[in-house]
């Protein structure tokens, strides 16, 4: 097996210099780095991660615990975390559809230096047991009431509130609210903002205007939006749609078109997520931009600081959203 000594001998450099370059620590010139990395590649050198772990006490592996929703809808969360970890020579492992008790087990096994945990509901005693285990944690969203854990979250309540308020300011009082999976915390928060804004403006919410989504298939969100508008055109009066996901809004736009109506002439539509197609469909969809990538980056940075610098100060950050007003909104038709 090729060792650092072999590379040092071939490059005519000290073992200490080669070690610094391969471990990305200390000072060295770019020219020397290129030379060492070229020789290491030619020799087929593979770092002995087990030995490094024994020496540093680190596995240099982070786990990110998430559900199918984030994997399908927001892969940018994973890529933003990966980019931060890669610059610090850490790897990332995805853990799907786990729970807090399972997270406790993973930490106790020592496979990970820390965990990033997204939007997981707390089982009885699960969070308490998890925080008492050795290991570093950062929660990315979720209903986390404890103040002694790191949390980076997005103000979805503000998003629901501001989107609804914007529609009300345009004269809309009957707003069809189409929600995603009701078990997801962010859906609950958007709905809470919607209801709060209605109440603040003296508008009584109407149960028929709240439509629960179907998440049973990859295209279920578009179908939810399409069916919600199609059916309720005939059963309920409304002049605007607030969807908790851009894909739901896409389905709503298609239904409006099939009815021979226009957006925003006959109906205003707002989505959530500001996905890339929203900029290019016709009409261009107004949407609430969610800082998913920023949440991933900040969470990863907090976790790495905890691990590598022994930073024990609890961080709790709430990221703000932004309304992106495009072509799918107008005042309520007379």
From TrEMBL:
InterPro entries: HTH_LacI, LacI/GalR-like_sensor, Lambda_DNA-bd_dom_sf, Peripla_BP_I
Domain HTH lacI-type residues, every copy: 2-56
Keywords, alphabetical: DNA-binding, Transcription, Transcription regulation
TM segment ranges: none
Gene Ontology molecular-function annotations: DNA-binding transcription factor activity; transcription cis-regulatory region binding
Protein name: HTH lacI-type domain-containing protein
């Amino acid at each position: 097996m090729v060792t650092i000594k072999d590379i040092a001998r071939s490059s005519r450099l000290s073992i200490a210099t080669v070690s610094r370059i391969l471990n990305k620590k200390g000072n060295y010139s770019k020219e020397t780095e290129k030379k060492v990395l070229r020789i290491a590649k030619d020799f087929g050198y593979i770092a002995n991660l087990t030995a490094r772990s024994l020496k540093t006490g680190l596995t240099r592996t982070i786990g990110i615990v998430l559900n199918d929703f984030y994997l399908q809808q927001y892969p940018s969360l994973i890529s933003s975390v990966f980019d931060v970890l890669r610059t610090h020579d850490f790897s990332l492992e995805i853990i799907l559809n786990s729970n807090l008790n399972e997270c406790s087990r993973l930490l106790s096994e020592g496979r990970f230096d820390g965990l990033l945990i997204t939007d997981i509901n707390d089982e009885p005693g699960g969070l308490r047991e998890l925080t008492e285990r050795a290991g570093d944690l950062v929660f990315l969203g979720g209903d986390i009431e404890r103040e002694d854990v790191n949390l980076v979250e997005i103000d979805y309540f503000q998003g629901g509130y501001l989107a609804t308020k914007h529609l009300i300011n345009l004269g809309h009082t009957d707003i069809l609210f189409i929600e995603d999976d009701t078990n997801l915390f962010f859906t609950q928060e958007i709905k809470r903002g919607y209801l709060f804004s209605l109440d603040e403006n003296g508008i009584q919410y109407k149960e028929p205007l709240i439509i629960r989504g179907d998440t049973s298939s990859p295209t279920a969100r578009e179908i939810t939006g399409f069916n919600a508008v199609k059916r309720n055109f005939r059963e309920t009066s409304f002049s605007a749609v607030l969807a908790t996901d851009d894909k739901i809004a896409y389905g709503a736009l298609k239904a409006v078109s099939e009815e021979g109506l226009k957006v925003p002439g006959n109906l205003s539509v707002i989505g959530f997520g500001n996905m890339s197609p929203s900029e290019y469909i016709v009409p261009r969809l107004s949407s609430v931009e969610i800082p998913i990538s920023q949440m991933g980056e900040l969470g990863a940075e907090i976790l790495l600081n905890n691990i590598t610098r022994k930073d024990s100060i609890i961080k709790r950050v709430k990221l703000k959203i932004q309304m992106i007003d495009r072509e799918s909104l107008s005042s309520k038709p007379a």
